[in-house]
Amino acid sequence: MAQKKKDINYLALIIVAAILGAALGAIVFNKPEGTPTTVPNKVDFNDPYDDSWGKADKPATEATVTHILISWKGKNPRSAPKDPNRTQEQAKKLVEELWHRYRNDPTAANWKKLQAEYNEDSAPHNEYTCKPFGSGLDEAFNKCGLETKVGKARYIESSFGYHLIRRER
Fold first, then answer.
1. C-beta of residue 76 within 8 angstroms of C-beta of residue 161
2. Beta strand spans in 34-161 (E)
3. What is the pLDDT of residues 76-110, one digit of tens each?
4. Closest CA to 79 of 115, 117, 119
């Protein structure tokens, strides 16, 4: 008899916890006026590239960035496109597609996945430090890194190809 009463107490405790969890979830995931929060709309891949999405109001004094390099046939002997016959137009289309894919899911996990699959740099996850002077980086790359908001991405063209640059910090 004592075991049955103990089982009923555990069942009651589980039911109360479920009700409290549901109530807490309703409070956390609803705006104060009771309207559920909305998930952001998905980005339309047909929208043109919008540099202002990731552009900072003023340049940083230092920035840590990662990137995805997309090159094309004949651009630079030091960069090897994954598609050896890719044209500049195809490279630009690809970098803009990757920007849309990142903008649609601007998480670090998505960024790492895109880097692993598409980056044509010698090491896909390298971090670079951008500084106003003496960074040793391509000038356009460095400038873009300093002028990008943390967690956002923008692209530029350098002597190596197109770089989709994400500012980490």
1. yes
2. 63-70, 128-130, 153-157
3. 999 889 999 999 999 999 999 999 999 999 999 99
4. 119
